[in-house]
Amino acid sequence: MPIAHEKSLLWRSVTVFDGAQTLPRPMAVLVEAGRIAHLSPMEEFDEAIAAGAVEASGGGVMTPGLIDCHSHLVYAGNRADEFEQRLEGVGYAEIAKAGGGILSTVRATRMASEEQLLAQSLPRLQALLADGVSTLEIKSGYGLTTADELKMLRVARKLGELLPVRIITTLLAAHALPPEFADDSDGYIELVCNEIIPAAAAEGLADAVDVFCEHIGFSPAQCERVFQAAKAHGLPIKAHAEQLSNQGASVLAARYQGLSADHIEFLDEAGVRAMATAGMVATLLPGAFHTLRETQLPPIALLRQYGVPVALASDANPGTAPICFPTLILNLACTLFRLTPREALAGMTAEAARALGRPDLGRIEVGAPADLCLWDVQQPAELAYAVQPGRLRQRIFNGAITYAR
Ligand code: DI6
Ligand code: FE
Q1: Cα distance between residue 321 and residue 72, in whole Å
Q2: Residue nearest to atom 1 of ligand 1 (CA)
Q3: I need a surface site. Which of 108, 178, 328, 387 has the fewest CB within 10 A?
Q4: How far is the CA of 353 from the centre of ligand 1 (A)?
Q5: Residue 47: CB partners within 8 Å, gap ≥ 6?
Q6: Ligand 1 proximity of 82 Cβ (cutoff 6 Å)
């Protein structure tokens, strides 16, 4: 990680989206020692405050660094062949049942060395960074043995040492049933609870624990055992919930103070209510919805009605979302789910930060860590409106400019 810039940095006349809303007047932003030290409308800006500061840039739109709170970025190989099969009419669940899908990526990931996994994941991470990502959650889930799950998490941590980005790791050992346990899913869950979670916790490799609660994944009862083991090791939980059917995973996750329920196309009102009461975040993954050509929309109106915070993420993965383009995700959330551009941007900044249990991130306010993006657009809504790479003028990570054009 780069250390904070030794001098303070000043931006003048920027339009600021602060994580929740667009501020009404052009702003001055001063960054010092890795944090936002000052923020004020230009006409109230006191030059004395910025004495000795380096003029970083002027004009444009400034947002918090984007936060991608749900990804499966670390994996080996790809699934272009299955993409072609699906175009011929074979379903996602059908491919999974035939031993393809997640398990085909498991085979490739197990065969890859740590170095190979790192080399294959790096370009995907670079693509995310080039489009504004500052904080990225990366899940395991393509190893499904203790050694291979830990290998994935180590690669995720290593990515955060190689590039200027905050990586938050999630253990997703309960992602699919490995072939060795084909007739014994409870036996695999036992391994997850008694060996994989304790090992990941002991090595400090996981910041949270996730499950895939689905008829092609694990049952609510099995997921509950995973949640109990996670809690016993002091790890927060979250869930792939209600993606293809309503299994009640969101209600279950709420009982374990889950950080978020993700996907949730099939979530019902009882689930929304439980999430609201537990203070959970709803993480929408429009990239997977798009790739799978889903038709069941997540219950956006209910989420708004109950005040459940909505986050957006890439779900970057080889099967259902081979997409490393966060501003495209903003666009898909608006076009497919009818989120407003304001909701979409909040979903990839302040709300995504909450989904990661890091409410200190994803905001432009005095005292916040200075992870920022300066975009060559006139207004924040353009980031969701147009699908166009290359609009990032500057990327500021931890108070230092890590990319400038
Ligand atoms: N839901 C998803 O969208 C990803 N995992 C999951 O449980 C898909 C993972 C894959 O197909 O490789
Ligand atoms: Fe996922």
Answers
A1: 9
A2: 240
A3: 387
A4: 22
A5: none
A6: no
Q: Is the distance from the beta carbon of residue 318 to the nearest atom of ligand 1 less than 6 Å?
A: yes
Domains held by the chain: number: 2
89 assigned to some structural domain: yes
Which residue among 79, 240, 294 is best mutated to probe the pocket of ligand 1, counting the most ligand atoms within 8 A of its Cβ?
Answer: 240
Q: Same domain, yes or no, for 158 and 204? A: yes
pLDDT in tens, the chain (405 residues): 444 556 899 999 999 999 999 999 999 999 999 999 999 999 999 999 999 999 999 999 999 999 999 999 999 999 999 999 999 999 888 898 888 999 999 999 999 999 999 999 999 999 999 999 999 999 999 999 999 999 999 999 999 999 999 999 999 999 999 999 999 999 999 999 999 999 999 999 999 999 999 998 999 999 999 999 999 999 999 999 999 999 999 999 999 999 999 999 999 999 999 999 999 999 999 999 999 999 999 999 999 999 999 999 999 999 999 999 999 999 999 999 999 999 999 999 999 999 999 999 999 999 999 999 999 999 999 999 999 999 999 999 999 999 998
Quote the strand ranges of 89-193, DSSP E: 133-139, 166-174
Our answer on whether the CB atom of 317 is closer than 6 Å to any ligand 1 atom is yes
Using only C-alpha atoms, the chain has a radius of gyration, in whole angstroms, of: 21
Single out the residue in 332, 355, 378 at which a domain terminates.
355
Nearest to 141 by CA among 199, 196, 79, 81: 196
Q: Which residue owns the Cα nearest ligand 1 atom 2?
A: 320
Can you say how many angstroms the Cα of residue 240 is from the centroid of all Cα atoms in its chain? 13
pTM for the model:
0.97
In a domain, 292, yes or no: yes
**Is the Cβ atom of 240 under 6 angstroms away from ligand 1?**
yes
* 249 occurs within a structural domain: yes
Q: Are 139 and 176 in contact (CB under 8 A)?
A: no
CA distance 269 to 258: 17
Domain that holds residue 86: 66-355
* Pair 169, 257 in one domain: yes
Looking at the structure, tell me whether residues 133 and 228 fall in a common domain. Answer: yes
Does any ligand 1 atom lie closer than 6 A to the CB of residue 286?
A: no
Does the Cβ of 213 fall within 6 Å of ligand 1? no
Q: Are residues 159 and 260 in the same domain?
A: yes
Q: In this structure, what token pair is assigned to residue 295? A: 């038709």
